[in-house]
Structures are given as structure tokens and as C-alpha cells.
Amino acid sequence: MKNQTFTQGISFRISAGFLIVISLIVTLTFVGLNHITQVNSQMKQIVETNNVKITLAQVMQNVLQERALSMHTIAVLEDDFLKDDEYMRFSRLGNEYYQARKSLEKLIKTSEELTIFVTIRDLTRDTQPEVQSVVEQGLYKNDPSIFEKIRQQAIPKQRLIAEQVKKLVALQQKQALRALDRAQSSSNQARNLMLLLGSLATILGILIATYIIKCVSTKAHQLEHQALHDELTGLANRSLFFDRLGKMIRRGQRQSISFSIILIDLNRFKQVNDIYGHQVGDLLLQDVARRLNKCLRKIDTVARLGGDEFVVILESQSSESVNKIVEKLTNIIAEPFLLSGKEITVGSSMGIASYPIHGQDCITLINRADAAMYEAKRNNVAYLHYSEKTNFSEDLQRKF
Q: Any residues with CB less than 8 A from the CB of 222 and at least 6 apart, and which?
């Protein structure tokens, strides 16, 4: 009888211990999955919401730059029909700026963003009548002094707005980093809690905790990769490109080395989209990305800036070597693409700028490569190195 009682007591304690272990494992699993969901939600919001805000602010930047170019064009054009067309483009850009600003206003949540946004809105309201007046003078008067008014009055006012928009982009990028830190902090808390619960359970509990932590880490790396790489092509995106370009410039300053950037724009890409559809256009961009990667070394960087524009950073190359690589890139892009059973041929236009002779900061280098690329496109040649002749205006930054 005593043995039976003793056995029953042991069975009870084992059962109770087993139930405690199972409870700890269930609690660990529940808490871990709950935190994983929260971290995933936070990081997804960072990737989606903050990227949307930054994109809208960059659209505003691009429009301001395009409007500056449009003002120059209206001032120097002599043909009234061409002036009317350019004025319609100027007005359309203004509408795009307004729509982007209204969309961005709905997403603004912090007082810091609101302060800068109110400044942008007030500057736009105060300067728009004067800018419009100067542009209309250029539209109806063939007076050389109009160009000077645009340069000295209208463009500086546009630049004030552009500087505030740039400030807003920088703030939003900082907020994205702070949000990532908060998400990482939440991930760390989840990990510590899982380790604490796992230490009270059996080896099975520890294995489950390790698995969940691994899942959190893997998902964080995946989202980090998404934030820094182009979703369609897998190449570095604009943010990662400018980060690497900045690092190359700092390295060049320390070690006195040179490097080149190549801005690539596909020819006839719009026709491909119009004729065959955007799905074929996306396949074309993916094939172009693969071909570019195939031609370049691992130490070089190739990125997609958006649309059909790509950019390459070539480390420590002589002018002759750069030309050989550019010719190789030109030839491989010119080869036919077989997409969805259709053979499609596109060309490319490339502009090259080199550090430090063509610029010693990111914006100058990319703008000068852009100027060279457009000069190559205008002259119907495969590529051009930047020269002073291609730098038609130091005040213009097309979209960078």
C-alpha cells in the first residue's frame, strides 16, 4: 500500500512537472510568436510607410528641379508654339507637385515633419505668384532680361522650397532609422524573454526558443535586404547606392584614389512597355540587371535608380579600362532579349563622371554623369565622359 502511495506520488509529481514544462513551452511559443508578429508588423510599416513618404518627398524634389529647367527653357525659346508646350509642361509639373504634397500631408505624423511641411507649404504659397508671373513674362515677351529674372528671382525661390524638401527627406530617413532601432529593441526584448522562459523548461523548450530567435533574425535580415535592394531586379536601390558612393568618396579622400560612375538609360524602353505591356518591360529590366552583374566585378556596385535607369560604380579604373567596360556593357545590352517568346532589342545611352576630376561629392558626380548621359542620347552616341560642355546649368539637379 505504501509502495502504491509512493508510486502515485511520484507519478503525480512527474505529471505536474511535465505539465509545467508543457505550459512553459506553450507560453514560450505564444509569447515568441506574438513578438515576432509585432516585430514583423513594425518592420513592414517601416519598409512600406516610410518608403512611401520618402518617395513622395523625392517626387516633390524632382518636380522642383524639372520646373527650374522648364523656366530656363521658356525664357530662351523663341517659337511661341514651343513656349506654349513648355508652359503646359510647367503647369502640369506644378499639379504633380501639389498632388504629391497633398498625399504626403496625409502621412505626416510627427511635429518635426509638420514644422518643415508647414514651411514648405507657406513658401510655396508665398513664392508661387511671383514665380508664375516671371514665367508668364517669359511666355509672352521675347526679352533677354526675362532669363536674368528667372535666374535671380524665380529659381532662388524654388531653391528655398527644394532645400526644405531636402530637409524633410533627411528627417524622414532619420525617423526610419529610429523606427528600425525600436523594432530591433522589441526584437531584443522578445529574445531575452524567450531565453528566460526557455531556461526554466527542458531541452525541448530551449530548442523552440532558439528556433524562434532564428526566425526573428532571418525575417529581420530579409526586411533589411528589402529596404536596401530593388524589389524587381534585386540590385542595390537608390539608398544603398548613395551610401556606397559616399563611402567611396571618403575612401578616395583618405587614400587619394579615383573611381568612375556610369549612368545608364535604356533606349526605347517606353515603346517596349507600350507595345508588349509592363510585364514584358519588367522581364527586360530583370535581364538587363543580370547582364550588368555578369559584366562587372564583385567589388563594383550596380544599382537601379528607378524606371529604366541604372548606375554603376567602378573602383580604381583608368580611363582606358573604363571605356573598355562601358563598351562591353553597351554591347551586352544591345544584344537581343528573348522575353515571353518575343525577341526584343533595345539600346542604351551612358554618361560617365570620374572622381575627383568631375566632382568630389555625390550630387555633383551623379548630376554630371546624368548631363553626359543626356548629351550622349542627344548626339545619338553610345556613351560620353563628362566635360564642361555638357554641364548646361550648375543650378539644375534633374532628379537627384
A: none
